[in-house]
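# nightly structure sweep
# worker-07 picked up a monomer target from the shared queue
# config: single-sequence mode, recycle default, output format = C-alpha cells
# input follows
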Amino acid sequence: MKSFKKFVFITLTLLLLIAVLAIINTQSFEDLRYSRVNFYMLGFFSVISFCYIYIYEKMILKKIKTIKTYGISIASVFFLNMVFSSLCIYLFFKNSDYEVIIFQSTLSVCVFLLIVFVFEIYKKSLPKESITLNEKSSSILLLILKTALLLSFFLLIMICGPLINQVPQKEIIEMTVRVLLSSFQITLISFIILRLFYISNYFRKNVVIGVLFSSVISSLLSIYLNTLLGEILLLHFTLFFLVCLFCCSLIVIMLLYKSKIQNLSLSFSKKETEYLQLKNQINPHFLFNNLNILIAFIETNPQKAIEFGHHLSNVYRHYLKNDDNDFVLLNDELQFISEYLAIFKAKFESGFTFEFEKEPSTTQYILSLSLQELIDNIFKHNILDKENPVVIKIMIHQNELIINNTKISKEAVISTKKGLENINKRYNLLTKKEITVTDNENLFEVKIPILHLTK
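# output follows
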C-alpha cells in the first residue's frame, strides 16, 4: 500500500470507528451533525496518521534506533496535535483551555501507539505465527504489571495532568489511586479475555481479530465492573473501548516480541550446538584415528574390521541425515549412540563399559543433539583406564532419560559447563522444563526430560 493511500485508509478507518462508537453510545446520529467536531476529529486523526506514515515508518525503513524512532514520533504527534488543538480551540471558542489541549495531545499519543501496536501485530501475523499465552506465573504477573503501569502513566497524564493546579492535592491523590486500580482491573480483564480467545486455534493464527474481539468484550466488562464498584474511573464508552484496545494490543505486542527474542535465542543455541557437532564430524583426528583402527583390524582381525566399518558407516549416515527437528525419537537416538559407543569401544577396549537398562516407547522424544553431547563430555573429562574402567549407564525412569557415569577425572581438563548450559537453555525455551545435574566425588549424572509426542 502506497504512503498516501495508507494515510487516507488509517484516517478514515479511525473516523469510522469513532462514528460507530458514538452512534452505539448515544443511540442516535446527533453527535455526527456538528461540523466543528467533525472537522476537529478529521484533523486530529490526520495528524496521527501523518506522523505514523511519514515519520515513524520512514525512520523504520532507514533502520534508525528503536528508542530514537519512538521518541521522535511520539514527540511529533504530541507537538503537532497540541498546535492543532490550540488553533481549533482559539478559532471555535476564542480562548486557550490548556487542560483540554494537554488531554487531547496525550490522547493522540495513545492512539498513535495503538496504531503502531496494531500494525506490528498485523505484520507478525502475516506469516500466520501462532501466539501462545502459556507463560510462567511470574512472567504473567510481570507482563500484567508492566502493561498496567504503562496504561496508568497515560491515563494519569490525560485525567490528572490537566487538573493538577485546579483541584486540592488530596483529590489528585485519590484520583491517582482510582486510575491505578482501574488500570490493573482493565489489564487483568483484558489478559483473561485474551487468554480465553487464544485457546482457539483460529484466534491464535488470526491475532488482530483476536485483539479486536477481546477489546470489545473487555471494554463492556470493564464498564460493568466500573459501574458496579461505584464508577472508579469516569470515562466515556468510546474512551473505555480505546483504553481496552490499547491494553490488549500492548499485551499481545509484548508477547510477540518476547516470542521473537526467545526464537532468536533458541536459534542461536541450536546453531551453536550444530556447529559443535559439525566440528566433531569433520574433525580429522576423529576420522583418521578411526581409519587407522579400521586398517589395523583389517590386518589382525578382518571380522572385527567389518563390524567396526559398519558402526563407522552408520554413525556418518546419521550425521548426513541433516534432521532440522528440535526433538528426535529416543529409540533412534539410542541406536545411534550404541553405534557411536561401539567405535570408542574398539579404540579404548576395556577403558569403559556401557549399558542401556530399558527400551523406550515409540512416542518418547528427547532434544536433538543432546545425548551425543553428554556422551562426548564423558570421554572429554574422564581417564579411560583398563584397570578402573568408566561405567556409563543410560536409563529411562518415568519421564526422564538418566545418563550417569563413574568419575576418573582428567586433572588438565577444566569444565566450563557450556554444553550443559546450552542443552538446558534449549529445553527451557522449547518446553519450559530443565535438565537436572548431579555431580559428586564418584558419580556424574544428568537427567533430561522425555517428551511424549505423536506424529
